[in-house]
């Protein structure tokens, strides 16, 4: 049987997807953890300037329910979501960039104790398919908090290579994850008797980015290439055993 290959997305297709996207669609996913902490407002009223290794700068001004993202002479106001870490003064920030088409997504780890930040830029399009997600990881220092504000304590790591863990995301869903040096294999399965109508599924995320933030604290970015373009992030704390 012939296999139907995904069609190539035109710029008009991408614009339509962006314009029709609604936040409430993404909050219904069964993989969104019911154990997730409430969104944080700790950064409201604060400004953060990031200096990257190439000398470029990005500034953030945080309000209660939105932020202002500034780069050069361009500023845009965006909705945001901020999750607190189990570690003090570490936050996971997520926002879209709706000032460009197709939209881009930014996931940011702000680590005030180590005066460091990791930024993950996500956008449509790779050399293989414009349905896939292209990721760029950038490390930065937080300006004004160290003598060398461009330095960053975060770095890529192989600490988790060979580690196997089970994560309970909801009362019904458990994910068995096997971490490799550049990929991650995962089996999503229902808790026994919770969902007898399905037996789960297996997927591989390749490449996977593993970043060490501090001792036993990691930021992981998963991406499923080929037609789905699925991307997900985890802030994993092995001291509190939470992600």
Element string (H = helix, E = strand): HHEEEEEEEEEEEEEEEE
Largest sheet descriptor = 8 strands, antiparallel, barrel
Mean residue pLDDT? 83
What is the beta-strand fraction? over 45%
By DSSP (H or I, 4+ residues per run), the number of helices equals 2
Distance between the termini: 41 Å
Please, what is the oligomeric state? single chain
- Which class do the helix and strand fractions yield? mainly beta
Strand order of the largest sheet: 1-2-3-4-5-6-7-8
The radius of gyration computed from the alpha-carbon positions, rounded to a whole number of angstroms, is 19 Å
Low-confidence stretches: none
Proportion of residues in helical segments: under 10%
Choose one word for the global shape. globular
Q: Let me know the number of strands.
A: 16
Written overview of the protein:
The structure is a single chain. The chain has 2 helices and 16 strands. 6% of the residues lie in helices and 46% in strands. The longest helix has 10 residues, at 11-20. A hairpin with a 6-residue loop joins strand 5 (90-97) and strand 6 (104-111). It is globular, with a radius of gyration of 19 Å. The model has no long low-confidence stretch (mean pLDDT 83). The strands form 3 sheets. An 8-stranded antiparallel barrel has the order 1-2-3-4-5-6-7-8. With 243 residues, the chain is mostly beta strands.
């Amino acid at each position: 049987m012939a296999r139907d290959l995904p069609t190539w997305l035109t710029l008009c297709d991408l614009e339509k997807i962006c314009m029709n996207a609604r936040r409430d669609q993404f909050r219904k996913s069964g993989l969104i953890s019911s154990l997730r902490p409430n969104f944080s407002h700790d950064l409201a009223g604060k400004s953060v300037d990031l200096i990257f290794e190439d000398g470029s700068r990005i500034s953030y001004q945080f309000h209660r329910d939105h932020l202002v993202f500034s780069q050069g002479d361009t500023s845009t106001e965006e909705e945001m979501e901020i999750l607190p870490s189990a570690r003090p003064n570490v936050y996971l920030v997520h926002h879209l960039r709706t000032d460009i088409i197709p939209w881009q997504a930014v996931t940011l780890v702000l680590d005030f104790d180590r005066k460091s930040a990791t930024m993950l830029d996500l956008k449509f399009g790779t050399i293989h398919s414009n349905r896939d997600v292209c990721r760029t990881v950038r490390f930065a220092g937080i300006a004004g908090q160290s003598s060398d504000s461009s330095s960053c304590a975060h770095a890529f790591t192989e600490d988790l290579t060979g580690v196997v863990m089970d994560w309970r995301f909801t009362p019904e869903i458990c994910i068995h994850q096997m971490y490799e040096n550049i990929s991650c294999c995962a089996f999503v399965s229902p808790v026994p008797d919770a969902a007898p109508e399905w037996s789960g599924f297996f997927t591989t995320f390749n490449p996977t980015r593993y970043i060490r933030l501090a001792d036993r604290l990691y930021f992981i970015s998963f991406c499923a290439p080929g037609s789905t373009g699925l991307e997900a992030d985890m802030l994993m704390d092995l001291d509190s055993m939470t992600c």
